Recover the amino acids of this structure.
């Protein structure tokens, strides 16, 4: 049985770290207002020379170092992002060049905050089918560049960053082996107007700014995330009490709490980084995963659930024996 096994994780953040207090000097908000509604205290904002691709490349270098392998051994790069460096070519090809990889398959995936989960399933399928043996799966964003900094209800929620994992094809002898056990994805395009960017190449010819109806998004997020996690666990033949860690999309601390309660999960099993990074969209799951791996919480052999929901709506989950 060929499985996709995580052999390394990495992440990268822009140099500039912005507190709620600093934001309050520029817009009509306060640390108390932001923390009470979101749990966010800090976010990182990309500066000059920092782009989605540069952050992605840095995260990949950290993941490759953690895996103890050379970049040239990678034969597939899939980058999930809603904020690419250019309309084309794919930012994944820029990452490929930055890493010094002469030739490999490289492309982007666009599913906003669920993008990393979509990329994981794409890569897992390609590994299982024999198309690739070692892959970099990346989530990277510079959302600060599509925010309306005069809209205090949205600009305080987001940050920039990148996370990456190295997946390797390994022959697993039995069902107790390491690797991705199952993935499940969904989309429902009827909810476009609840979370979107009001620009685009073929519509306005502009990049546009992020727009969101927060209350409606919150309601859908709690329902959809709990549902897809239950669905994924059933597909893997597991129960919620067998889960060691949940690494959720870091959108809002209240969503994380509500989802955990709905599933009957202990809050101590949920990896939370939203207070330090804010919502980094496709980067949030791999970024949080890397934090929990590096601080020793996530150990080899444990059951880890990744889950996310984003604009579209798109949502999904992956279950990994780490």
């Amino acid at each position: 049985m060929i499985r996709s096994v995580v052999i390394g994780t990495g992440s990268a953040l822009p140099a500039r770290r912005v507190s709620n207090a600093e934001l309050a000097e520029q817009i009509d908000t306060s640390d108390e207002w932001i923390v009470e509604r979101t749990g966010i205290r800090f976010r990182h904002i990309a500066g000059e020379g920092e782009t989605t691709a540069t952050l992605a490349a840095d995260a990949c270098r950290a993941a490759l170092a953690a895996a103890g392998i050379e970049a040239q051994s990678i034969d597939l790069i899939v980058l999930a992002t809603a904020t690419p460096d250019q309309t084309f070519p794919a930012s994944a090809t820029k990452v490929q060049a930055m890493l010094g990889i002469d030739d490999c398959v490289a492309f982007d995936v666009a599913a906003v905050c669920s993008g990393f989960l979509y990329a994981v399933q794409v890569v897992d399928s390609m590994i299982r089918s024999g198309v690739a043996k070692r892959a970099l799966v990346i989530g990277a964003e510079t959302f600060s560049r599509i925010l309306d900094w005069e809209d205090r209800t949205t600009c305080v929620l987001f940050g920039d960053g990148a996370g990456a994992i190295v997946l390797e094809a390994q022959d697993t002898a039995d069902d107790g082996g390491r690797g991705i056990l199952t993935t499940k994805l969904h989309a429902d395009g009827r909810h476009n107007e609840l979370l979107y960017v009001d620009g685009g190449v073929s519509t306005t010819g502009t990049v546009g700014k992020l727009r969101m109806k927060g209350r409606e998004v919150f309601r859908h997020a709690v329902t959809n995330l709990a549902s897809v996690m239950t669905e994924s666990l059933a597909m893997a033949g597991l129960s919620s009490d067998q889960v060691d860690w949940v690494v959720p999309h870091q959108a809002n601390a209240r969503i994380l709490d509500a989802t955990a309660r709905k599933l009957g999960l202990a809050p101590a099993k949920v990896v939370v980084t939203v207070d330090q990074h804010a919502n980094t969209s496709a980067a949030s799951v791999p970024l949080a995963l890397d934090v929990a791996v590096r601080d020793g919480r996530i150990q080899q052999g444990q059951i880890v659930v990744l889950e996310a929901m984003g604009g579209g709506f798109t949502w999904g989950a992956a279950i990994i024996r780490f």
Remarks:
- DSSP finds ten helices and 13 strands in the chain.
